[in-house]
Amino acid sequence: MPISEWKWERIAMDFVVGLPKTQGKFDSIWVVVDRLTKSAHFIPVRIDYNAHQLAKFYVKAITDGPSERTFQVLEDMLGACVIDFGGHWDKFVPLCEFSYNNNYHSSINM
């Protein structure tokens, strides 16, 4: 695969599923990772969302503001949120995303 020249030119994505339902009825997180910078978006979703709904969330997340390691880090962060905040984990996903994106990534020395 060629090396990207622009952020968000090439992405990886996957889902973290099987989470406890929140008050907003979210039970999953859609993880979208930029292959160049390793920046990630963690988007709370429901397992029953269709492709059209997911596309809307993707455009909103990327315009507004993966690797296995990314998922492992997110699951660790969420584990702490679920233990501490139970059914309100979706409110803390933006904090997890901020923390992840402002962390040092050894693969790109940044």
TrEMBL record:
InterPro entries: RNaseH-like_sf, RNaseH_sf. It comes from the Eukaryota. SUPFAM superfamilies: Ribonuclease H-like (SSF53098). One of its GO terms (molecular function) is nucleic acid binding. Signal peptide: none annotated. This is Integrase catalytic domain-containing protein. It comes from Solanum verrucosum.
